[in-house]
Design a protein that fits this description.
- By secondary structure, the protein is of the alpha/beta class.
- It has a 9-stranded parallel beta sheet, with no helix packed on it.
- The longest helix has 21 residues.
């Protein structure tokens, strides 16, 4: 027997038969926590078996040739599954849905509507016809462990990663899903059950129309942390909506716009206006977005606004730690101060407080900073605010390090305002 024959036999022994998939779902096999495809079964068979399943937490259904009707069956099954768990299981026994991947299928706007219904399905699933008390508040025994299962709906939430890469949802589908996510508010958790923390909209023919709906959602959504919008039909016109959304958003950490070549330098110039106000975004992916040297300089200026000492501290972005651009267009140095994009991102990685200290120190030690301190271009009424900022930023350094050039500059500025 050859090595490959022996390996094939071992694989046959290890791989479960297709018939066992339905049995495992119905019997709540603890080893089955991820559903990858349907085997030889129909979607209706899988959907029926899922309704009372309590073990699967991840659904990887990519490349399954799913259409709108198939998506409807799956989303309906997941909603019924959630209702069963909420009404019959305690928090300990109820699994958390972590990922739903429907990438590379044929889901259109109708399928997007069913996804939106699933996202917005209430955590209080249904009520008794005679009483207003929700069923899962009235029933006190868990079907699985037999323990008391009275819980608050706040503990029935799922935080889901939803991947819709390479489907056909278009602007209409993006608007439908965005609308379902737009009103998420943690204070109203008794009305929501599924919170999307990562959303993949790549390659869905989303244009500026759909982008407007997505940006409207970002202004009010309080759960989304990662948003992928790569390889769509987004242009520089959408950057105005996105900039306004990022000013208000408090949760988004990763934003990917890779492959939207129509954004260009003008779009980046608009987008960076929000980076001065956004305090949560950490990763910005802009490869193949039509950005050249001018756009890169705009990004550098957003990370290091050197128009005045106070602007260095207050108007620079200190949270971005990764910006992905095409390497041949990365401008290595800022024209006057020769400060690289890589250096600025490295400072931000050390934390916002350290980044402020390093950037302000670099400014004061630069030719522009020295001229600024010696001249009257800095308004006299701003000196007290500058001193306050300097003292807070450099207070720890005075205790740890000997007097250096930066400390001398600080003492000089301090002496200028003694008579104020």
């Amino acid at each position: 027997m050859t090595f490959f024959q022996a390996a094939n036999e071992n694989l046959e022994l290890l791989a479960p038969t297709s018939a066992s998939l339905i049995d495992s779902l119905k019997q709540n096999d603890a080893s089955l926590t991820e559903l990858c495809g349907f085997g030889c079964h129909t979607i209706d068979e899988i959907s029926t078996a899922l309704r009372k399943n309590t073990t699967v937490t991840s659904f990887r259904l990519s490349n399954c040739e799913l259409h709108d009707d198939d998506c409807a069956a799956i989303m309906n099954a997941l909603s019924l599954r959630y209702a069963y768990q909420a009404n019959n299981l305690c928090v300990t026994c109820r699994p958390r849905t972590k990922r739903i991947s429907l990438a590379r299928n044929h889901i259109g706007i109708d399928g997007a509507q069913h996804i939106a219904r699933f996202i917005g399905s209430p955590s209080i699933c249904h009520k008794n016809s005679d009483e207003d008390t929700p069923v899962h508040f009235r029933k006190a025994i868990c079907d699985n462990c037999g323990k008391d299962r009275l819980v608050s709906p706040r503990f029935m939430e799922d935080f889901v990663r939803l991947d819709l890469l390479a489907n056909e949802i278009g602007d209409g589908g993006a608007a439908t899903i965005s609308h379902a996510m737009a009103t998420f508010d943690r204070c109203n958790s008794d009305e929501r059950s599924h919170y999307i923390v990562e959303l993949g909209f790549e390659r869905n023919s989303i244009s500026d129309i759909g982008m407007y709906s997505i940006c409207t959602m970002l202004q009010t959504n309080s759960s989304l942390m990662t948003l992928h919008l790569g390889k769509n039909d987004i242009t520089k016109a959408s950057m105005t909506y996105l900039a306004d959304a990022l000013k208000d958003n408090k949760t988004l950490e990763v934003l990917s716009l890779t492959g939207n070549i129509a954004i260009g330098d003008e779009g980046v110039a608009t987008l960076i206006q929000s980076l001065r106000y956004n305090k949560t975004l950490k990763t910005l992916l802009l490869k193949k977005c039509g950005i050249i040297d001018m756009g890169t300089n705009h990004l550098i200026q957003a990370l290091y606004c050197d128009t005045s000492p106070l602007d260095v501290v207050n108007m620079s972005n200190h949270t971005l730690v990764e910006i992905s651009l095409c390497s041949k267009y990365v401008c290595n140095y800022l024209a006057m101060n020769k400060l690289s994009l890589k250096t600025l991102l490295g400072w931000n990685k050390l934390g916002a407080a350290t980044a402020r200290r390093l950037k302000l120190g670099f400014y004061l030690c630069s030719d522009r900073g020295i001229r600024h301190v010696h001249s009257l271009s800095l308004k006299r009424e701003l000196f007290p605010a500058l001193l306050n900022k300097l003292w807070k930023i450099f207070r720890d350094d005075f205790n740890r390090r000997p007097v250096n050039k930066l400390d001398v500059l600080f003492c000089y500025v301090r002496g200028m305002v003694v008579d104020f």
